[in-house]
């Protein structure tokens, strides 16, 4: 009996000794999470996630409240590895979807789509009453991403689909309504038929854009084609851009003929080349922007025509190398230049010039060669975007001179908040192309991790259709690959440039 009691006592002491390091680690993490240094806080979040205990995960969830993207983005990404259903449920409550901070609600809404744990769809549907449009849109995106997955639980037919349908039929924010159309089509395609038809005639371009994207899958290709041909002449550039992509995806004789018709009428430079690119990929022919060659080809297509197998090489884009910025040909007539003034841009080169001075000259050379009918803006950014104009302006000699002088005189320094610069640029409905020059690594602001920025921008762009061209100055290879992925997803290109 004495031996047994001694053994139990020793086991208890051993357990206490083993728990002390874990308690000490948590105490250290709590202190680190209160550090003024965001990198210390980020490191603490990573260590806590690696620990994997319930108490550690609670602190990671709390880190969603951090106002620096380096910390909160890291927590948002790592919480995909959460394996505790009770802790996951907390993301549906006051620590997540019901938090006071809309940023926390938005982060919780997004991360629920990742991971492996079940998600209560009815709780997400109830949260669609949120007053914040970004939160509502993210919740709908999460439902769309979870559609068809066994992870999505609850009474979908009676509770979730009707809630989504209400937003698809009308929401105060057109971006939310557009995303609701995508979610409804993913959850219940039959229930989306009337909403998609109505969406094609909606007053808001983002709604028409979403409806056009969904028309073939929801209505059927044959029924969608005449509606898409009508929308191909839409007054909104973003809707016409989406329709061009959708028509190309149909891969039919009638779709080719509709694309050729649009090419003959299209005045926007970038969209014209986009149509050419789609036609080249569909047909294997290398005709350029002259619609007459394409029209002759389309007129001779037999009724049973089918496209040839895709070519191994990518179709050639139109490039006017007399107009280029830092080695990137400019195809757009509606372009916003986003220029990162953080990091090494202020360092001196061997010749005594700063990289910023080199960039001044590159921007001047590009802007001075823009045709007068081009619309442009220049938006340098550090912690905040610093736009030259509130909206695109014509490239008159006077405006070019003012923009060049504005950028040359800009002395802003600090972190590089590319996310807010993106949001500012795409808020201008006239923009069809963003050209961003950066050292590649976002710093500052609410968004830091490209692993999140890339899909988040793609989500926002689904009803915006902006092309992102990226110019990378000294970016690491891993970062180059992520920027190339972002550009490719939007139909743009990515190049490296040595300042």
What can you tell me about this protein's structure?
There is one protein chain. The protein has 499 residues and is an alpha/beta fold. It is 55% helix and 8% strand. It is built from 22 helices and 10 strands.
Helix content: 40-55%
Query: Helix- and strand-based class?
Result: alpha/beta
With strands numbered from the N-terminus, the spatial order across the biggest sheet is 7-6-5-8-9-10
**Could you tell me how far the N terminus lies from the C terminus, measured between alpha carbons in angstroms?**
80 Å
Gyration radius from CA atoms, angstroms:
26 Å
Extended strand count: 10
Average residue pLDDT: 91
Q: Report the sheet with the most strands, covering strand number, pairing sense and barrel closure.
A: 6 strands, mixed
Q: Using the alpha-carbon principal axes, give the shape.
A: globular
Question: What's this model, at a glance?
Answer:
It contains 22 helices and ten strands.
List the defining traits of the structure above.
499 residues, alpha/beta, 6-stranded mixed sheet, 55% helix, 8% strand
Q: Strands, helices and their partners?
A:
Elements: H1 2-32, H2 38-51, H3 54-62, H4 69-78, H5 85-90, H6 102-111, E1 119-120, H7 121-127, H8 133-146, E2 152-153, H9 156-169, H10 174-187, H11 193-199, H12 205-219, H13 221-231, H14 237-250, H15 253-265, H16 269-283, H17 291-299, E3 324-325, E4 328-329, E5 334-340, H18 355-368, E6 375-381, E7 393-394, H19 397-409, H20 418-426, E8 433-438, H21 450-461, E9 467-472, H22 477-489, E10 494-496
Parallel strand pairs: 1-2, 5-6, 5-8, 8-9, 9-10
Antiparallel strand pairs: 3-4, 6-7
Helix pairs in contact: 1-2, 2-3, 2-4, 4-6, 6-8, 7-8, 7-9, 8-10, 9-10, 10-12, 11-12, 12-13, 12-14, 13-14, 14-15, 14-16, 15-16, 15-17, 18-19, 21-22
